[in-house]
Amino acid sequence: MELILTEEVERLGEVGEVVEVADGYGRNYLLPKGLAVEPTPGNRKRYEKVRKEISQQKEERRERARERADDLDGLELNFIRKAQEERHLYGSVRKGDIVDAIKEQVGIELTPENVGLDSPIEELGQFGVEINLYEDIHANIKVNVAEEEEEGEEEDE
């Protein structure tokens, strides 16, 4: 059975794409849920137009992501944290901290989901962090975590 998708369906296709599916899958799932329509000439014309609009929007998002990647690539963020003698931090550096620092330093708003950090940074040092901006567009930044000087040390100097 040939159908035109009205919404993106994972592992099947995008909006406006003509797909070949099993009759039962089309009749019992895609059509009743409004995920696809019959490929009539009117529907083909309508969804071709929708597909072009979506393609244009994706290209615009991709271009914005490239610009952001250029702004972010090589950025260094510095965090000061209290640490134990073994260089282990009392307070870790989390995705939200990185997002806030990027907004403050560069003015780019991101979400914590954009930060490619598997777990919070819990020790002193320099770390490379990947920022996922859009599909296959990424930026690499450096996160420096330094130890906070204690008040007693400052008075001695």
Key attributes of the depicted protein:
157 residues, 4-stranded mixed β-sheet, Ribosomal Protein L9, domain 2, 37% helix, Ribosomal Protein L9, domain 1, single chain, alpha+beta, 3-stranded antiparallel β-sheet, 2 domains
Q: Would you write up a description of this structure?
A:
The chain folds into 2 domains: 2-69, Ribosomal Protein L9, domain 1, CATH 3.40.5; 74-156, Ribosomal protein L9, C-terminal domain (Ribosomal Protein L9, domain 2, Roll). The strands form 3 sheets. Strands 4-9-8-6 form a 4-stranded mixed β-sheet. The protein has a 3-stranded antiparallel β-sheet with strand order 2-1-3, with helices on one face. A two-stranded antiparallel sheet has the order 5-7. It contains 4 helices and 9 strands; from the N terminus they run ββαβαββαββββα. The chain starts with a strand and ends with a helix. A hairpin with a 2-residue loop joins β8 (125-134) and β9 (137-147). The chain has helices at 23-30, 41-72, 95-106, 151-156; strands at 2-5, 18-20, 36-37, 76-81, 88-93, 115-116, 121-123, 125-134, 137-147. Residues 153-157 have low confidence and may be disordered. By secondary structure, the protein is an alpha+beta fold.
